[in-house]
Model the fold of this input.
Amino acid sequence: MDASHEILDAFVDGEAVDPDALKRALSDSAGRDYLVDAWLLRGLVQDEIASEVAIPHTPATGGMRNWLIAATVAGVCLVGGYFVGARYASVIVPRPGPAAAPSEAVTSPPQAFPVPAATRVIRLDMDPNWKESGGGR
Done:
């Protein structure tokens, strides 16, 4: 691309150009053909950009309406949960039976599976020469 085509591109783009340089570029038939091609190409690109669908703008009132609907649903769920919990509390959390006598021995719950015997025992003893010191240094 030579300098005359750059002048024609600037002219098509709407930039300020030197009138004498524009006349020299248009004096050649190749320059005139390039101007027509650039002008048509620019028109096609602008038409394509204009035909693209713009994202519709949502009004701000719709957002407030959605928040009110969400708050109403949350309130209904909270109140409904409260009433269901109050009505069926004995089903959800059973009432404790009679208290066990303190003289009875406390037994551990049965294990789900037998625990294997230990294969190794590690004994931890304090070092007789160990002394506690203050500070972290």
Remarks:
- The mean pLDDT is 79.
- Helices lie at 3-12, 19-27, 29-51, 60-87, 89-92.
